[in-house]
Design brief:
Blueprint: E1 12-16, E2 21-27, E3 33-37, E4 42-43, H1 45-53, H2 60-69
Antiparallel strand pairs: 1-2, 2-3, 3-4
Length: 75
């Protein structure tokens, strides 16, 4: 992580080069992954599966569209 920030137990922290920001992820109450980026964009378990399916980090353009339009990644 780029600077020392408060970390909450149960979350795993990292940095995305493609988004140039930090993120945190965990398993939700159902055991599915959820992720929050530094700019407070939330990715649910389904979106995480779509991203994983394509074996690539989230492109910045996709992330910005999701954030601006408060959308959901479906494929």
């Amino acid at each position: 992580m780029s600077e020392k920030k408060k970390q909450v137990p149960g979350w795993t922290y990292g940095h995305s080069e493609s988004l140039d920001q930090d993120f945190a992820f965990r398993k939700d109450g159902n055991g599915n992954l959820e992720l929050y980026t530094e700019d407070k964009t939330h990715y649910n378990w389904y979106e995480m599966k779509v991203i994983e399916k394509h074996h690539a980090p989230v492109p910045l353009e996709v992330h910005l569209c999701k954030k601006v339009f408060e959308g959901t990644i479906i494929e």
